[in-house]
Design a protein that fits this description.
Elements lengths: L14 H11 L8 H14 L11 H10 L5 E8 L4 E7 L5 E8 L4 E4 L3 E3 L8 H5 L1 E4 L2 H14 L4 E6 L9 H13 L8 E5 L3 H8 L6 E5 L5 H7 L8 H15 L4 E6 L7 H14 L2 E6 L13 H13 L4 E3 L23 H4 L6
Parallel strand pairs: 4-7, 7-8, 8-9, 9-10, 10-11, 11-12
Antiparallel strand pairs: 1-2, 2-3, 3-4, 5-6
Helix pairs in contact: 1-2, 5-6, 7-9, 9-10
The chain binds S-adenosyl-L-homocysteine (SAH).
Length: 360
C-alpha cells in the first residue's frame, strides 16, 4: 500500500505502515526491531480482538497502539435474529457515515456479509441501500475490520466472506481487490470462499478476471430483457445484458469458475414464464448457476416478493431446462438484515445520537 492510501483504522496499514508507526514512536527513530511488526501483524490478523489482549506485546506498546490507531468502526447497534444465528451491526465511521455488517452462523461454519461502500450510487429501486443513495467509498481497513470483528464474536469458524452488504464492490475497485488479497493472504481465507457480488460493471468484471484471484463472482441479473433490466438495475443502460453475459462467459473461461446469477423474484414482474424462459437462455449461454431469492421488503418499493408457489414454479421451470438453481433463505429478515435491506439510515433514530462514545 502506498503511503498516500487512506488510513482510518489499524487494518489500513500494511507491514511497512506498521514499521513506520513503530519507528515514529521509538526514541531512536527508525530503530524499531522488525519482529515487532510481526507481533503486531499477529495481533491484528491471528489473535484479533482489542490490542489490550494481544499477549505477545509489551503493555506500553499495546496502549499506544490502542490510543493512536483506534478501531475504524464504532458500534452503534447490534441486533440478533434467527434465534441468535444472525447478527447485524450498525457501525459509525470516523466521519459519521454509517454502514452495516451481517454475520450468519451455520452448523459448521459462518459467513460474514460486508459492506464495501457507505450507501450506493447504483440506484436499484428495490434495494434499501440504493434508495438511500451514495455517501462514500470504504477504505481497505474499514472493510477488513468488519470481517475481523465478526470473526472475533462468531461461535463458528468464519470460512466465507460475501461482498453483499451495502455498496457496489466493483465501483470501489482498488480497496475491494486489496481486501480480497488481505483476506486470503493474511486472514487465511480461501479465495474460493470469497464472493464478490456486482450489479454488472462489465469493465471491472473483466479486470477482476485478470487479477489471478480465483474468487467467486455473483452477478445481480434480476431481469432477462434489456427493457425490464433498464428499469430494475439502471446500470444496464450503460452495460447491457449482452455485454454482461459476454463478460460472464469470459470470466468462466479465464478463471475456470462458473458465475452465479442473482435473481430477486418480484411478484408479477420477473417471475413470469417469459422472463424465466429468457433467463434460462442467458444462464445456458453463460453456463451460470441461478440463485433465486424472493424479494425482501424495503421502505421505498411497493412490489412484493414472489409467493412460495411462484418460487416453486420458477425453480422447477429452470431445473427442467437443465439449469442449476438454488433458492436462498431469507436469513436475517426479522432484523432487516436480509439481502437488500441494509441501510445507513437508522429507521427514525439519529445515527449520531446512537453513536455513543463507547468503542467496541
Ligand atoms: N451491489 C452489489 C452487492 C450488494 S447487494 C450487487 O448489486 O450485487 C447483494 C444482493 O442483494 C444483490 O444481488 C442485490 O440485487 C440483492 N438485493 C437488493 N435488494 C434486494 C431485495 N429487496 N430483496 C432481495 N434481494 C435484494
Amino acid at each position: 500500500m502506498s503511503p498516500r492510501s487512506t488510513v482510518v483504522g489499524p487494518y489500513d496499514l500494511d507491514r511497512d505502515g506498521l514499521a513506520d508507526w513503530l519507528a515514529a514512536g521509538s526514541e531512536r527513530r527508525g530503530n524499531a526491531p522488525s519482529y515487532r511488526v510481526d507481533q503486531l501483524w499477529d495481533g491484528l490478523y491471528v489473535q484479533g480482538g482489542p490490542p489490550e489482549n494481544w499477549s505477545n506485546l509489551p503493555k506500553a506498546l499495546r496502549q499506544r497502539f490502542a490510543e493512536e490507531l483506534p478501531p475504524a468502526l464504532t458500534e452503534v447497534r447490534r441486533s440478533t435474529g434467527d434465534g441468535g444465528d444472525t447478527v447485524k451491526w450498525l457501525w459509525a465511521l470516523h466521519d459519521g457515515a454509517t454502514i452495516e455488517t451481517v454475520l450468519m452462523v451455520y452448523d459448521d461454519r459462518a459467513t460474514v456479509c460486508v459492506s464495501s461502500q457507505a450507501g450506493c450510487a447504483m440506484a436499484c429501486g428495490f434495494c434499501a441501500t440504493g434508495q438511500d443513495g451514495f455517501t462514500r467509498h470504504l477504505s481497505v481497513g474499514e472493510i477488513v475490520e468488519q470481517v475481523m470483528v465478526a470473526r472475533h464474536v462468531s461461535p463458528r469458524r468464519v470460512s466465507n466472506v460475501v461482498f453483499m452488504g451495502m455498496g457496489e464492490p466493483l465501483a470501489n475497485y482498488g480497496p475491494t481487490v486489496a481486501t480480497l488479497r488481505r483476506l486470503r493472504d493474511d486472514v487465511g481465507l480461501s479465495a474460493r470462499h470469497l464472493t464478490v457480488s456486482t450489479v454488472g460493471m462489465v469493465p471491472a468484471i473483466r479486470r477482476l478476471a485478470s487479477e489471478e484471484l480465483p474468487v467467486g463472482l455473483a452477478i445481480s441479473v434480476h431481469a432477462a430483457t434489456d427493457a425490464l433490466r433498464d428499469e430494475l438495475v439502471p446500470i444496464n443502460r450503460r452495460h447491457n445484458l449482452e455485454s454482461l453475459v459476454d463478460a460472464a462467459i469470459d470470466w468462466r473461461e479465464q478463471t475456470g469458475r462458473r458465475v452465479s446469477f442473482e435473481w430477486a423474484l418480484i411478484d408479477g414482474v420477473n417471475d413470469t414464464p417469459e422472463q424465466l424462459d429468457a433467463l434460462i437462455e442467458l444462464a445456458d449461454q453463460a453456463r451460470a448457476h441461478v440463485n433465486f431469492i424472493p424479494l425482501n421488503p424495503t421502505p421505498g418499493w411497493p412490489t412484493k416478493g414472489t409467493p412460495p408457489a411462484g418460487v416453486r414454479f420458477a425453480r422447477e421451470r429452470l431445473a427442467r431446462a437443465g439449469i442449476t438453481v438454488t433458492v436462498r433463505d431469507t436469513r436475517g429478515d426479522d432484523i432487516d438484515a436480509a439481502c437488500g435491506q441494509l441501510a445507513s439510515r437508522t429507521r427514525g433514530e439519529s445515527a449520531v445520537a446512537l453513536a455513543a462514545p463507547h468503542r467496541r
